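Service request form, structural biology core

Requester: graduate student, group of Dr. S.
Request type: structure prediction, single chain
Budget code: on file
Notes: please return the result as structure tokens.

Sequence provided:
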Amino acid sequence: MSNNSQHLTTQRFEDFELPTPLLLAIKDIGYTYCTPIQANTLPVILEKQNIIGQADTGTGKTATFLIATINALLSTPPNEPNAGPRALILAPTRELALQIHQEAIALLKYTDLRTTVIYGGANYEKQKKQLSQGCDILIATVGRVIDFFKQKLFNFKAIDTLVLDEADRMLDMGFIKDVRYILQRLPPAEKRLNLLFSATISFKVKEFAYELMDNPKIISVESENKKSQIEQYGFYVSNSEKIAILIGILREAHPARTIIFANMKSTAEKVTAFLKGNKITAGLLSGDVPQNKRQRLVKEFGEGEFDALVATDVAARGLHIDGVTHVINYDLPQDPEDYVHRIGRTGRIGSSGYAINLICENSAFYLPDIEEFIGNKITIKPVTEDLLAEVSPPVKLERNKVKTYDKGKNKQNRPPRNRQPHKKTQRAEKTTQK
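Core staff response, request fulfilled:
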């Protein structure tokens, strides 16, 4: 990476006093110059200062806290030798946990440190086995880490570094009680390094951060280039025109990789069915998609196997996919913070992107709050005839298959049915007993 790139600073990683194995891995990955959040936070963290770090999605926060964590483990002896993991990194979603894990593996290349990732919706016994083999850095979703902790598969005695990634998402998803449960079982805050990172810092996040750690330093890096990196605009549309305009936008722009956000699962399914019916390759990511299929969809989309990924907020939280050129809000989100997270899927480090909004009668009243939150007006473009595409009928989508038992011939394969006796039978039995 060149230091002339607008998204980087002149601060080099090699100028920090980092352990040699870590510097070698950083060089292998191709990091030379820091992003603004890295340049501003790493000097503070290396002085063992707790921080609340805020920066846009896709600006290098993950690398920041992983470098800080690995540095802490390599340069500081453990509080409790051989007592379990020394670092705990909590993420709000399984996709984000997996992505953090992959980046951690690359940064641990020249060290003897081990990392394990645990998350819900995946092979339970396999994760238990991996955890039993021991690790130094445990990356986890909140529910699964509590589950395994209660089973006494590990303990928190040795934790001397705690990271909460995308803390705003974590609180929005209702994890605050579970995170508090974990905090109460960790060593005292003054005996560990505490790092909280978030794309937005609301009062709720700040309040929770002060509960989490002693005297944190707040470092907020607002990207000066973000507005120029992401071109944001919208169209005022009627509900009946939305599908036609969406297809028209995709045909006109020929985007390499697009994420389309809908507010509801049923809407996401409808959009996907119409895209496929109009010969636009698309994948659907909703909350009920099994974990193995989710991972495959994300991988295939990242590799360019299909043009568009249609997603709900619940399904897409924590998705970090390189090369996303367009984000289209088929529905404007109700929460302005969700808007920031959605458009952050494009315009990631050093790249440009487009955020296109279909502002319909159902969601137009969300626009003023979004514009106030992001601090600028969204450009409104006219709907031209070229954008009103002719629309073919939707295809019928395959439902996510749930294991069922065969009816008819293979009755022996069906599970025993725990039927309650009919009321008349119950009465007859009682009379006989008398």
